[in-house]
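tool_call predict_complex ligand=BV8
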Amino acid sequence: MSLDSITNELTEQKSIIVAVVGAGISKASGMPTFRGEDGMWNQYHAQDLATPYAFNNNPNLVWEWYRARMRILLEAQPNPAHHALTMLEKEGILLGVITQNVDGLQEIAKTKNIVEVHGRIRYARCQDCDFIQRWDNKDFAKEKRKLPKCPRCEDSLLRPDVVWFGEPLNQIKWQKAVEWVNQANILLIIGTSGVVHPVASLPWAAKKNGAKLVEFNIEETPLTSLSDYSLFGPCEQILPEFSETLIKKYAERYK
Ligand code: BV8
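tool_result ok
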């Protein structure tokens, strides 16, 4: 189906679009995905790194993995896919972005309504008190410094401010994501393998509410059969064209 006919169908009614995005949207910004051929998990298993057990067992290894990602992130910029979502939001068509990514690139792309359901890699928080600080600076990321300690508790470790496997999501953020999905009549599913729960359950909830699902990926996922439309190819190329066409159609019909 052409982009033209898909966007024709999608603008038959006034849209409330919500986007659920994963690591694939940041690939073109240089951030490795988790499970693809160059996925950062390949040489490790998720449970070796992004779990409370792994951190308590080997905090140096886990911090080194996060520092390695931060060194890439410090050079990264949002790509056209991030900016396309900001454009849809500016036009008043997109309600918000639910991101599994912790890289902060959607915020740098100036999207206003974002729920970072898996936390933020640019912040480190104390394991034992509510101290939190940004650490996305060169010296922290570059130095093989000893384990970062909480300045307040002295000997408590700082940990990345992210949600690890086996940890619950922040309930306020999760509730907001669910509320947005319940309002959406179009759900964009962008660059996610659709395997990490509970986020992977959101497209199913949207479908149950009668929303149209549009998947953007370079390959099929468990969500492809659920989607009304699948646009295969790099989202940094397809999403900008999709957004421009949708905005144009929308303006013709409703403005
Ligand atoms: C919880 C933060 C409960 C850290 C991350 C069995 C069944 C179901 C669930 C479970 C189960 N066993 C365990 C669970 C629960 C578990 C889970 O889902 N496990 C899965 C793996 C089976 N979930 C949890 O533990 C969650 N918590 O359930 O808590 C609870 C309740 C009360 C009390 C205690 C506990 C917490 C999950 C959060 C984990 N944290 N990240 C960090 O980043 O360091 S997850 C991590 O995976 C990232 O956030 C990442 O975004 C996320 C999801 O992956 P994707 O984004 O989809 O990335 P991936 O590489 O997989 O895919 C990229 C896609 O992009 C691919 O499809 C690729 O084709 C595509 N792509 C690539 N390039 C492009 C592209 N597409 C378009 N254009 C391109 N250019």
